[in-house]
């Protein structure tokens, strides 16, 4: 646990980022995070952004890149990661009209093509899950299993989101063990223990965090990434609580 750096997914602070992107990065650094996972670059040129994060002592852990950009702007996305010093591009989300079985087959082809190009530049392409990929397809496998089993491990890796795996009724640690050495990024999130199962600060809910944290080094996790999709506190307070939990 102590040897794995901790990043913040900036989507958590999206409202603050829209008002003051650089100021938000500074507050993230002041809270004590080692790095950030980008979900957009605040309108900044990536060279300028690299200078900003370097000055704040932050590293670029990874970037969430929309599927459309993987299809049509991959070279630019790779170039941006090289400038930022990030080793990971993450496919973050599938729209509702892209979740049929035929869509997953097309997605696998795209991930393999894009992942091979990323690998040529020393970048790893990762797939980030939600709960809908845990539904079974016609062959009895879940969509997430199918994605990981039908893509080349040298080209496509995983960013498991432990909240959504738990939400789907499965154990996150089981998935990390099953795909050992293929999960360089892990989204750490917690969930309230009531019927609402709302997003919660780390250590305040019911997600089996310790079982995940205990196997991080053995699974070669490169970054823990804190994310809280929605917070009922000030989001800066929420992420500080989560980081404090991890450091303790």
From TrEMBL:
TM segment ranges: none
A molecular function GO annotation: isomerase activity
Keywords (A to Z) from UniProt: Isomerase
InterPro entries recorded: IolE/XylAMocC-like (IPR050312), Xyl_isomerase-like_sf (IPR036237), Xyl_isomerase-like_TIM-brl (IPR013022)
Annotated ranges, domain Xylose isomerase-like TIM barrel: 26-247
Record-linked Gene3D superfamilies: Divalent-metal-dependent TIM barrel enzymes
A Pfam match: AP_endonuc_2
Name the record gives this protein: Xylose isomerase
Phylogenetic classification of the source organism: Bacteria, Bacillati, Bacillota, Bacilli, Bacillales
């Amino acid at each position: 646990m102590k040897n794995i750096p901790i990043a913040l997914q900036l989507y958590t602070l999206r409202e603050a980022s829209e008002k003051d992107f650089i100021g938000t990065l500074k507050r993230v650094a002041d809270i004590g995070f080692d790095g950030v996972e980008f979900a957009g670059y605040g309108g900044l040129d990536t060279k300028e952004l690299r200078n900003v994060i370097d000055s704040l002592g932050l590293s670029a852990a990874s970037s969430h890149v929309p599927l459309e950009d993987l299809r049509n702007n991959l070279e630019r996305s790779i170039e941006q990661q090289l400038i930022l010093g990030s080793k990971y591009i993450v496919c973050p989300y599938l729209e509702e009209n892209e979740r049929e079985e035929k869509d997953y087959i097309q997605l696998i082809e795209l991930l393999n093509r894009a992942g091979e190009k990323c690998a040529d530049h020393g970048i790893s392409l990762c797939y980030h899950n939600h709960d809908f990929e845990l539904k079974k397809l016609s062959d009895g496998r879940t969509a997430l299993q199918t994605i990981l089993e039908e893509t080349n491990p040298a080209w496509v890796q995983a960013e498991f989101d432990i909240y959504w795996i738990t939400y789907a009724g499965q154990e996150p640690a089981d998935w990390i063990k099953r795909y050992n050495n293929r999960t360089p990024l892990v989204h750490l999130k917690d969930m309230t223990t009531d019927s609402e199962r709302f997003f919660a600060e780390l250590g305040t809910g019911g997600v089996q965090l310790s079982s995940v944290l205990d196997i991080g080094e053995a699974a070669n996790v490169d970054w823990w990434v804190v994310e809280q999709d929605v917070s009922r506190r000030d989001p800066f307070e929420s992420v500080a609580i989560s980081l404090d939990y991890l450091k303790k």
